[in-house]
User: Fold these one by one.
Assistant:
Number 1:
Amino acid sequence: MTVQDRFGLELTTASGPAADDYVAAVDLILSANPGADARLERALAADPDFALGHVAQARLFQVQTRGAEAREAAAKARALAGRVTARERGHIETIALAVDGNGPASLQRLETHAAEYPRDALPLSLALGVFGLYGFSGRPDHHEAQFAFLENLAPHWAEDDWWFLTYLGWARIELGDIAAGAAEVERALAGNPRNAYAAHARAHGYYEAGDAENGAEFVAAWLPRYDRAGQLHCHISWHLALFEMARDQPERARALYDDAMRPGASLAPPFFTLFDAAAFLWRWQLYGHAAEIPAEWNELHDYATRHFPNAAIHFADIHAALAEAASGNADAALRRAEQCREREHAGKLPQGSVIPTLCAGTTAFARGDYGEAAELLERALPELARVGGSHAQRELFEDTYIQACLRAGLYDKAAARLNQRLARRPSRRDRNWLTAATPA
């Protein structure tokens, strides 16, 4: 029998119910909603030889940081690749390479695949978003590269497709075209109101516009209807916490940390929990909301040591270093920085020296050596985009640099950076910091 997915692409399976469950599971994956696990298990029970079902399971396990299970599922899909179409073989290999940890090869394979199959959404999704193959490529122009990739795909997508609009709008927002990007994301939400990636992108639009009031209102209305087990629940809660701090509601922000971000409360994979919790606690302290070092750093340090004991994933490393340094374990943070340098020298860190420099700079800040912190972070800032993630996430290191300059008496440098930021978007905090940078 011939069946197709939602994007009009043929699926090799002898089971109509398996195809239906697969299509539903893919939409759940593409919208960051729970439930795909059960749908894929049911699809593979109906058709154990459904190759795309296995590779979708591999992708889901990868997102959930279940590495061994992801590799096993990818191996099953590869073993079945001789029975499927050329499109499905390319689909399988693109995802399997990413599961292998070979991002450059996966991206190269994906770009070739996308040229022939521009509507094959699940492998396309590997390249996109905050932690996609472009974002983690180490390229300083990864935002521009992602947008160019999407523009090439756009003629092949309907103007109202909720999945494609989400990423096109988010890419525009990150490049500064906030109004156009936000409009596309709102159309994506109209097409699928439960699309967590679109809600996340809309939060970014408010953040980049400096609109904390409307951002908080939007997220506070959307989040209660999102399952706490959803992959982005912790992260979207983090966005709401940033809005609350920006509008001088620090206790609301802190309640969100306790409820949705801290280890034990967050149901997100460890990678997401680590960076959201570390980024929140660091900002909480940096913005003057903690009279003393929050005790929660020790809990997060233990969590980072358990899940990320050694340098391996650069975005986890820069946030694990925050937890190590802030909890008073500067030796561990500097050891992680040295491990990052070793990975760089071995050709395993495409982001380059910016990663160990950030680890060392934030460690200097945590121990109160603000002059050294300012010097190291100033060295890192021109390469900051190579870290990946979003502007909002990377801004933590810019904030730390500004505070290091202020505390070291480097007022001209702090003011120069603040004026650049205020030219881009309004910020009450930045205005206050600028006042502090121009002492009488």
Note: The CA atoms of residues 81 and 335 lie 43 Å apart.
Number 2:
Amino acid sequence: MTKLINNYYDLERSAVAVKNNTHRTLVGGLWEEIGGLQFNFLVENGLEPDKKILDIGCGCLRVGVHIVKYLDSGNYYGSDLSQDLLDVGFDVELGNLGLQHKLPKSQLLCESEFRFEKLNASFDFALALSVFTHLPLNQIRLCIERLTPVMAEGGLFFATFFICEEGQDWAKSITQTDEVVTHPDSDPYHYRESDIEYCIGGLPWEAEIVGDWNHPRNQKMIIFKRKRHISLADRIKKSYRAFML
């Protein structure tokens, strides 16, 4: 039997949760608390109604319901492993709030390999909350690599990690909170700052470690900024100016 990357890849588990109306618990619970926390952070960091955002690992739209309500119609896009979670998010969570008219269902992509180009859109913002905390490092690198071509220059990507702080032993399990213990080699994962730098090495991104943002499970926020393209002519001018100094 093939070992799953994490429990979220168990699609039968997701289907059962949707059938039993426990989908909110499946995606981590704290529906209002974390949904509101994410939304407020996005707005405080520049999200405006006319901007387009990709919510990676959107599940059943815990933060999606807030974002869809706030954005202009058609500006929210989501991707997730589970079609069942996407369906209950659209049919139930958005439906109960009367927001389905603001989101074409075709903008909810069921995808396990980060093939974001299937959405045929360019994004000003992207979000991956409680996604990289459950993935091995090369899966994170793959996600960022495939996100790169669909992000607008200057676009911001917000992602959470469990961090191995300076002085902590990366090779040992780390207690993040009373209910969360992270590991170097199994889900949930913790990473060093240098691991995060590896994920963007050679790619047009720069990373800012925000750290604490009041997440109840001690997930730390990283802001990745898509670098702007510098033309060959501009690079030559820059090199010439440096040479003349």
Note: The chain has one domain: 7-244.
Number 3:
Amino acid sequence: MSGNTGESIITLSSYPRAIAHIDCDAFFASCEQAQQPYLKGRPLVTGKERGIISSASYEAKACGIKRGVRLSEARRICPKLVVVPSDYETYSLYSRRMFEIIKRFTPAVEEFSIDEAFCDITGLRRIYRSSYPAILRMIKDAIHRELNITVSAGLSLTKALAKICSKRDKPDGFTVLPGYLLHEFLRSVPLDAVCGFGPNTVELLSKLGLTSALDYIRRPLAFASRHLGKAGAELWRELRGESVYPVTAGKREKHLSISKTKTFMPPSGQEEIVKAQLMKNVESACIKLRRHKLSAAVLTVYLKRADFSGSALQAKLSRHTSSTLDFSPLAGRLFASLFAEGVSYRATGAVLSDVLPEGHDNRTLFDDPVKIKELRELSRSIDAVNGKHGKHTLHLAASHHAMNGRDHPRNNPSRRKKELLRGETFRRRVNIPLLRF
């Protein structure tokens, strides 16, 4: 700590709370390299089945390859690039194992996304007879030792500060920020490095003369409230070391919306093929609604053209439901309004929103209660059959063209779906990854 900065210390307390953020490095690509160690050190990307990059290893990033780039462009940039199809099932297994490792050290673990977690280690120094940074180092090393992937870890007083720290020195980073160094650290944090400040917010704050996170918290709370509202005021407090957002143990269960998207290759301009892909998205979204015992009233459909531009339309039902047959006619009408002859499409998407718990009854006088009951029972019967014989065994006739992948070099399933253990099927596999040395 420098004593000649001429700026007051924000707080003298090192860790009134010790909050850590653990963030996997290039998670999907790292899982592939962990399963196939001979790929370590090589430029690797996932997303072969989509035609665009889902994740890039740091070796690939060093060549200038980024997520979302077309594979043809990536191969031009790096001829030695290794391209593999995404294996989301295996990535999920690695994710669950990572969370289990963290929970061995502390029960207060918030599964923020598939590859990142917040954890509260306040008060654990007596148990481990170690400092907070040492405890976090134990967690980080355990993940690397047991899963053979690296994570970047940040430790500070709040979730907002911990996340800034974990992003500070990727990959394999380790940054700790005690309270008495806040004023020095935040001086070097640009506004766009603060989670919660989007491009428009950064532009606004820049116009108001701010350049760093320290500039923001040096302004009075009224400044944050006036320009950025409640969220800005809460972030102002978090950046000053006051914990506003608690670590909520468990998964993020609240569903604001449920979306299903699909990129298909090669792109197509045939109406029945593009519509089939969209209807399959709608079916999958409704299946997820029912699995989580939820219902929705708003449907948004999205079509992405071959040039990566896109358009969307949204409509609302008169009541909440989880039945595919309630949403499919609406999806067909929205599709008809969006689809254009002579245009090639590469992806479709369906988003269900205005989500409420199952059983929410907001029927109108004009809704048919007998039909509602029949559709609900039909959905249960379809789920029972598909649960026994595989997802989409029973499906809409309109989605039939999407059920069998067309012959194209990009339509490659992951290795885990091709190399099956005895008794496994494409749809049903035991929850273990397969390693290859």
Note: The two ends are 48 Å apart (CA to CA).
